[in-house]
């Protein structure tokens, strides 16, 4: 999916949120920055962390928006949370794969500052993006909880969408040998299932059971696949 194929509402949403966050640059500059971001999200090497994922996270934020204090900043953080991405940049998928939250946070602060967004707001967006490194927000930080929950909401998808998510993630990391990928994916799922809760916001908690069912089913399948591979 390229920028020309992106949902039409994305740029309108970007313009609205930048304005609400205090951007003072001309609309043409704000629009150009949003289009450059869509270019990053539209890189053809992305199979899951693409424009569809961006749109999905923004939609999920909107589902939880009544719990946020600064919704425009949460949405802007969603725009930047996977802006810098390279599936081949890290040695192990288990180490967060290609997402570079630190670099994405810096990009957010640089670009939003250039658009005239105030220092406190740009810093806050950077903090929200960086928080996705661990997906373990302070439960009293509702904006952070909503962003983390929106990013993980795909885990609670209906079965066919979850199956597509699993397929797309594997394709995104196709360069990783099967045995290594299975080991890393099993480790990630096991760590997620060991958490007391996957979602931190009150409304996001409604996704808990579906997410755990999907993860447990995938873990069972992957464990069987890994066993078969080791005996081959």
Automatic annotation (TrEMBL):
GO terms for molecular function: hydrolase activity. SUPFAM superfamilies: HD-domain/PDEase-like (SSF109604). Keywords: Coiled coil, Hydrolase. InterPro entries: HD_phosphohydro. Residues 205-232 form a coiled coil. This is Predicted metal-dependent phosphohydrolase, HD superfamily. It comes from Flavimobilis marinus. The lineage of its organism: Bacteria, Bacillati, Actinomycetota, Actinomycetes, Micrococcales.
């Amino acid at each position: 999916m390229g920028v020309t194929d992106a949902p039409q509402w994305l740029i309108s949403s970007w313009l609205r949120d930048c304005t609400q966050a205090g951007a003072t640059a001309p609309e043409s500059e704000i629009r150009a920055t949003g289009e450059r971001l869509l270019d990053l999200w539209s890189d053809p090497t992305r199979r899951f962390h693409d424009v569809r994922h961006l749109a999905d996270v923004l939609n999920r934020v909107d589902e939880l928006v009544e719990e946020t204090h600064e919704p425009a900043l949460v949405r802007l953080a969603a725009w930047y949370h996977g802006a810098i991405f390279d599936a081949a940049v890290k040695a192990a998928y288990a180490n967060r794969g290609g997402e570079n939250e630190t670099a994405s946070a810096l990009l957010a602060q640089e670009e939003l500052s250039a658009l005239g967004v105030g220092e406190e707001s740009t810093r806050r967006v950077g903090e929200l993006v960086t928080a996705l490194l661990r997906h373990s927000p302070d439960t009293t930080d509702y904006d952070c909880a909503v962003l983390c929950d929106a990013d993980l909401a795909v885990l609670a998808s209906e079965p066919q969408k979850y199956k597509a998510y699993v397929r797309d993630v594997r394709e995104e990391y196709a360069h990783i040998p099967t045995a290594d990928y299975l080991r890393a994916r099993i480790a990630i799922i096991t760590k997620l299932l060991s958490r007391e809760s996957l979602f931190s916001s009150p409304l996001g908690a409604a996704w808990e059971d579906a997410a755990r069912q999907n993860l447990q089913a995938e873990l069972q399948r992957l464990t069987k696949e890994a066993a078969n591979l080791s005996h081959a």
